[in-house]
Inverse folding.
């Protein structure tokens, strides 16, 4: 018999994730009940304890999918958790083996039965192309996740661009690194990369939305996990013109400091440091938790032939402009744009960059990364780099962007 060592709940607009962590692997069974909508999770070989019973208190009123949870002993050796649902969902459950600071994890993801069309969500339209009543203002809208996996398999082609997108604003996909189960790097004072990147991403979104020619869209607008390649899918589904992923670097030595900007490499990394950083960032899926048993034909068709070097070359141009702008507010860790095989940058048709804003492992830079004013400076620097890029490389079928 074992006991749970931790339980965590990550509510998000796209889905809710429940994570049950234990020192040993457990057996489980999941079934759905109707009238009313419920999910029943049986945990075999588990003893109830205060940690597991705390699951009920972790369900927030604003959770879009879960109304409440009841946990109790069902029979000897079996604990049952009953999830009362607010709507019909499609669950996905899977096991993760120990990695990083985590032990054995059982992950339960609850996706909406009918996921929203991400393009329509960005435009503030319903599935019929009509304005959504009482919708949030367009500048702060988020992109809906294409899920669950059964739904992904039905989408083998990217959608055609709807007429509402003709003559639209330039769309910038802004990706806050890490999130949810994956905290990213830690600072000496306890700062978490996932919190800093989200705050900077939100400020960058707000700065972009002040420009009448542009629109910023976040891949995540809260503390929840998104697989790396799903971030790319989101950007492509909204026909983003650029993809900017925001991070905060870390190193074993607290003396390391400075900002860096990276682009994708078709072949090897441009330096050992870039290769190691890409390996660490690509490990986010292992830490955050991805169901590796799911076959994803949509993704296979989305991440097309990366020999399309034009997109990578455009990413290098964008990275150079952002790097120069970042040099105006912080020391540069590398004075040249570096390249490596970052999974999150592997879009075949969207120029993509990864910005390491500063070293969270450096006490001085960690303090500045937590300063709201300095975060604004970072957001403004990235924005200025984007504007400079577009002034030299205007999007197709649009007039040249005016620098203001």
């Amino acid at each position: 018999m074992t006991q749970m060592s931790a339980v965590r709940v990550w509510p998000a607009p796209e889905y809710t994730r429940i994570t049950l962590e234990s020192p040993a692997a457990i057996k489980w069974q999941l079934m759905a009940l109707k009238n009313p909508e419920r999910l029943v999770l049986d945990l075999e070989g588990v003893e109830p304890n205060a940690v597991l019973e705390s699951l009920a208190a972790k369900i927030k009123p604003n959770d879009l999918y879960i109304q409440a949870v009841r946990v109790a002993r069902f029979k000897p050796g079996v604990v049952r958790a009953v999830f009362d649902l607010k709507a019909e969902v499609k669950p996905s459950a899977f096991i993760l083996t120990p990695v990083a600071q985590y032990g054995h994890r059982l992950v339960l993801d609850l996706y909406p039965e009918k996921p929203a069309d991400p393009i329509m969500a960005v435009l503030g339209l319903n599935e019929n192309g009509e304005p959504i009543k009482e919708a949030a203002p367009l500048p702060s809208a988020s992109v809906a996740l294409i899920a669950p996996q059964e739904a992904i398999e039905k989408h083998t082609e990217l959608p055609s661009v709807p007429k509402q997108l003709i003559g639209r604003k330039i769309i910038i996909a802004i990706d806050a690194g890490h999130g949810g189960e994956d905290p990213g790097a830690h600072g000496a004072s306890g700062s978490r990369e996932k919190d800093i990147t989200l705050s900077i991403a939100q400020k960058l979104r707000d700065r972009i939305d002040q420009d009448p020619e542009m629109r910023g869209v976040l891949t995540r607008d809260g503390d929840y996990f998104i697989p790396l390649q799903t971030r790319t899918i989101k950007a492509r589904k909204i026909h983003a013109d650029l993809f900017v992923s925001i991070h905060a670097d870390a190193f074993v030595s607290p003396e390391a400091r400075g900002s860096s900007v990276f682009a994708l490499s078709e072949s090897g990394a441009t330096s050992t440091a870039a290769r190691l950083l890409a390996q660490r960032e690509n490990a986010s899926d292992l830490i955050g938790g991805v169901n590796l048993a799911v076959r994803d034909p949509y993704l296979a068709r989305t991440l097309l032939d990366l020999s399309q070097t034009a997109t990578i070359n455009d990413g290098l141009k964008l990275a150079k402009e952002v790097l120069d702008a970042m040099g105006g507010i912080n020391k540069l860790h590398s004075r040249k744009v570096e390249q490596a095989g970052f999974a999150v940058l592997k879009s075949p048709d969207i120029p993509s960059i990864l910005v390491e804003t500063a070293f969270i492992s450096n006490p001085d830079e960690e303090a500045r990364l937590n300063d709201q004013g300095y975060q604004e400076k970072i957001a403004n620097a990235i924005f200025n780099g984007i504007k400079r890029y577009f002034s030299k490389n205007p999007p197709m079928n649009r007039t040249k962007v005016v620098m203001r």
Q: What stands out?
A: The longest strand covers residues 66-75. The radius of gyration is 22 Å. The first helix runs from residue 50 to 53. Residues 133-161, 295-307, 398-404 have pLDDT under 50 and may be disordered.
